[in-house]
Amino acid sequence: MKALRSALLMMCCALQALTVQMPTRAQTGTDAQDLARVADYIRQTRSLVADFAQTDRNGQTLTGVLTLKQPGKIRFQYQKGVPLLIVGDGKALTVIDYEVRQVQRWPIGSSPLGALIDPSRDFTKFSKVIQTGDSALLSVEARDPKRPEFGTITLVFQRQPSAPAGLSLYGWVARDAQGNRTAVRLGGQRYNAPVADSAFRWRDPRTPGPRGGG
């Protein structure tokens, strides 16, 4: 469980700390079109429910369900037996550890994850296309060169005509400054189905009663 907590902390730090400062590779016209398509995907994705598999630096994989609702709500519900929960309200990610009765929050700031749940944010200002050699995939990377301790995050989309704007979020990879890698892969994506706000409530282990996750 200690390794899992470390992986979660690394992932959350990478997600919340990425700013608009990007690597120096020049963007092409095609890159600009792809980033505009990603921005359209964000605007058209009112909700998303998907299965996820998270693999940490030691090769340990945990599964669960990701639920996203615009504006501002996201939830990572881990598999049975894992006493951890991540809930986002658009301003911060809250990590709830029921085993040690601890709650931690990180501001999402200008991270790509923040953009995924905020259709008003300009995705193109803090994203950069990374060539993959696979025309079926679109990969964008963000990092803050002034704060290398927060590492990088790469979002991967599949080109899928039936999905919003022709893209489906496939997953992401977060790397810390030491090169440790946490990968999240999505499957069974269901777009724009009704999602109740109650899906983003969580029980605070420190006090009785539910708390709002968004």
TrEMBL record:
<dbReference type="InterPro" id="IPR029046">
    <property type="entry name" value="LolA/LolB/LppX"/>
</dbReference>
<feature type="signal peptide">
    <location>
        <begin position="1"/>
        <end position="17"/>
    </location>
</feature>
<dbReference type="InterPro" id="IPR004564">
    <property type="entry name" value="OM_lipoprot_carrier_LolA-like"/>
</dbReference>
<protein>
    <submittedName>
        <fullName>Outer membrane lipoprotein carrier protein LolA</fullName>
    </submittedName>
</protein>
<keyword id="KW-0449">Lipoprotein</keyword>
<dbReference type="Pfam" id="PF03548">
    <property type="entry name" value="LolA"/>
</dbReference>
<keyword id="KW-0732">Signal</keyword>
